[in-house]
Automatic annotation (TrEMBL):
<keyword id="KW-1133">Transmembrane helix</keyword>
<feature type="transmembrane region" description="Helical">
    <location>
        <begin position="42"/>
        <end position="63"/>
    </location>
</feature>
<keyword id="KW-0472">Membrane</keyword>
<dbReference type="InterPro" id="IPR010406">
    <property type="entry name" value="DUF1003"/>
</dbReference>
<dbReference type="Pfam" id="PF06210">
    <property type="entry name" value="DUF1003"/>
</dbReference>
<feature type="transmembrane region" description="Helical">
    <location>
        <begin position="69"/>
        <end position="92"/>
    </location>
</feature>
<keyword id="KW-0812">Transmembrane</keyword>
<protein>
    <recommendedName>
        <fullName>DUF1003 domain-containing protein</fullName>
    </recommendedName>
</protein>
Amino acid sequence: MAERNPLSQPGERRLIPKVSVDSETFGRFAEGVASFMGTAKFLVYMTVFVIVWIALNLIGLFGMRWDPYPFILLNLFFSTQASYSAPLILLAQNRQERRDKMSFDEDRRIAAQSRADMDFLAREIASIRMHLGELATRDFVRGELRSELRELAERLERTEEEKP
């Protein structure tokens, strides 16, 4: 039997090297970025940044005019920021959705267990009530004992009368 020639099979070609990323660490990073981007502090920082950028490029303080009026470089900066922030925000939302689903599933399981426990207790209470109906009450037992005592007293009287 002839051996297979490894050259007869296509090889795996990688143009981009395989990168190993810890998804939990990166997920926490994405959540941190997304939570910071959703704050007033971030909006204030961005507003100050844009004002300084525009002021430096319009007024030309310190001879700095690297991005003239249509502010193409600033627009590129915001486009790049948006292209990175959108996936990070989506990643953070997906992680939160998974946590919410796990929490919802756990709540559902606990609710089902609680429902089963309540059904069991309701059946137990119904059973106790049914058996209580068959149990003798204190008044019934007292009445029975009194009638037995009367019968015993009557028998004693009859036996004493029959004695010579």
